[in-house]
Amino acid sequence: MNFPVRTAGTRLVIVGGGPRAIGVLERLAARAALPEQAARLEGAPLHVDIVDPHMPGAGRIWRAVESPLLLMNSRAADVSIFTDDTVEIDGPVVAGPSLAEWAAGIREGTLTAPTAGTARLAEIEAIGPTSFAGRRVQALYLEWFLGQVLAALPATVTVTVHRTTATAVHRATATAVHRTTATAVHSAPDATAATHRAAATTVPRADDSAGWSVELDDRAPLPADLLVLAAGHTDARPSPARHELAAFARRHGGAYLPPSQAGDAHLDQLAAGQETIVRGMGLGFIDLMALLTEGRGGSFETDPLPGETDRLRYLPSGREPHLHVGSRRGVPYHSKVRDEGEPTSLGELVHVTASALREREDSDGRLDLRTDVVPLIAAEIAHWVPDAPVAAPGQEPLAWLDDPLAGLADSRASLDPDAASQAARDAVVRHIEDDLRERTQGDVTSARMLFQLLLRLHGVLVDQLPTTRLRESSRGDHPRWWHSLFSFVDSGPPPHRLHQLLALERAGVVSFLGPRTVVTADDATGRFVARGGVGTEVEATALVDAFLPESSLAESTNPLLRHLVAGGAAAVGRESAAAAGKLEIDAGSRVIAPDGTIHDTLWAVGPWTSELPIGAFARPRTNAPCHRRNDALARDVLESALTRWEASRRPVGVGREHDGAEGTTDGSAAAARSWHGAPAGREPGPRHAARALRLGVLGPGRIGSALARTALRAGMEVRVAGRAPAPVLAAKLPGAAPAAPADLAADCDIVLLTVPLHVALQLDPQALRGAIVVDATNPWGEEDAAAIAEARIALGDQRGALSTSELVAAHLDASRVVKTLNHIGYHDVEDQGRGSGDPGRRAVAVAADDPLAAEAVGVLLHRLGYDGEMIGSLADGRHVEPGAGLFAGWRTRTELHERRRELVRVG
């Protein structure tokens, strides 16, 4: 839907709405608010289109609806998405609360909670600085952050959120003569010599002069002057090997669970007691372990011993599978370090420095990771952690850190199966116990120093080692090998998770296979076979790959990422030679075209690019790389927007020409629109798939806001009509679009009536003409009583025979009214939704005179996580009014049926 054009400017499309994308958006808005930039933007505002089918702010990975058993692996005090005064940026610092401070603010009433859900509020209020919060609480923190960003947008920046999937990117039709330009490369203070040389020379640039067209799944394409690709972690299509594993499991009645996010894994395929091989012992395994034990009714209790105060005992439910766990290393990620942020003597690095790396460059300014960089890292560790082990003769410098059980695998391979199993068990248990002791008990100075040092080294390598600086010999090592090592040491689970793992081993739920685990499928027996390097061997009917899908642009389930490099002549990028399967970008995050030229107006960030992986949020006061990268990207994007616009305003013949776009009047490619605008472009035509369900909310009070948030998290587009100013609504419901009441009927599939009943009976009936209207009202108080009495008199219903929904339907006589959602508390809406088939899924009663309208509302309820249950006509809606027989006293569909039978018997 097109909105009136306020003034022309530059249109930026950001594909992705998760933490990295909104971090870039925050930096853009902060920079745009600076007086100098604001003056330049006054005549050429920036409009930002954010494209993501998932909840804006949290994105796909962080979900407010996932299991509370899935925890963050960082303490709440160590998580922040805000910049602070340690971050080396030239943009403005906009400070804000860490996750722990945010929770404290909600607890103390100084911050507004982004949820009304009782269980979620309880989780937030229980968070302290040392808590490992649930991932779903982090999702709420990210949603809240986006709300703050949108509410504080300067007048020159507007944002539209599109709840859809971008499927491809094309260059728009070129109208300008291609020019090769010398473009400044913005560098960090310690930028590499190679970057400096690149900045001083003329760099070939791709022809992006006409801008971009972003294909969308269910609507017309979006035009873009500038384009930032910021999708997060994506899944991969099954490889031939994984196809065969799945086919093997089907042939033999077993189960195979491929790599995935823990919340997406089909764990219901694993039966109680089923022998199951688990390949992978990283954070994905820890999440699956929780879901398959506590998630199936098991529990832990304290079981201390002298010197082991944190020891646990596991009480099985009997529903757990038996997990045989192994991996390359054979051990889980290291525990988080107690008080990991406490000061240490760590000073400036002495070996991994810009000058030391320059000294090792070849004549082309390139480095080999293993021969040039790893020895410097090892020397740095030896300098700052003098009691750290050293590599054995003939070993790689960091073998002791990366492969702690290598010696076991080398020396025990000839043991008989029983002895091998015992040796593997003893070695893994001893490693975990030692790790917990070194990182959580007594003097943990060395463990803390190593933790902080690797964190520092990672930040330096982010700056100093883009893949474009690596030789071909480093292919596959960087960023994959280094990031794996860094994650193994620094990104491990909360300590109590490893205590739980030990308790599960003692309870017989988990067995350890040891290092060098290899899995095969034996058609003769119909079983998966796992063999550990120690000599362990087990057979099982189920196999779980407990890790994330490998990055592969060509095999990504994201159609846009596939198209970037596999679009034939239309491809706009290429796979990195140094980071297999990932999109090649330069040090400034610009996409490198297939011919080696650099796109001036196309940037990419995220785990599927060749940049060294960095988090989208970070520990406060650590000069976090993500904040520096986001600020630099925002600087370049904003400067590109301004120079592009200023060039287009020059007289013809000065600078480059620019073709006007539909709907603009002065030669820019797009118009600035209100942040709350509906999706731009034409309405879907025959070529486009059915768009996402669009929900209108009339009255964003407690129940209206709770339903709006739930709908947004379920992937719906939401329009909200209320009295609050747009910035207030943005903070409260980020991603929802404010609308006039009169527009809801035209824009939305269903309109929720969540205003007081007396207000509903005073609405202009023409404003909702033709709409399916959900009457979620209840009669409360004197004003409602007076309005009901007046409506009954007007309808001649002196006996009070009509239900309140019939009164509403009579008043809104041009609408199709359905009664539902009035008998669930606003504090329950966000907590009680469940997936289809869940035995505890809550039913919601539905009353309607229009079967088609009732069917549409049933689809809505299903998307919200509830079973819609028809109880009859609007006249029957009286049974779900306050005090009536079906208003309370039941929960599930079965319980509702029983309650209705009881009422019939009583009647």
UniProtKB/TrEMBL annotation:
Family annotation (InterPro entries): HpyO/CreE_NAD-binding, L-asp_N-monooxygenase_NS-form, NAD(P)-bd_dom_sf, P5C_Rdtase_cat_N
Region (Disordered) residue spans: 649-687
Superkingdom of this protein's organism: Bacteria
Domain Pyrroline-5-carboxylate reductase catalytic N-terminal: 694-779
SUPFAM superfamilies tied to this protein: NAD(P)-binding Rossmann-fold domains (SSF51735)
Domain FAD-dependent urate hydroxylase HpyO/Asp monooxygenase CreE-like FAD/NAD(P)-binding, first and last residues per copy: 13-181
Protein name: Dinucleotide-binding enzyme/uncharacterized NAD(P)/FAD-binding protein YdhS
Organism: Brachybacterium fresconis
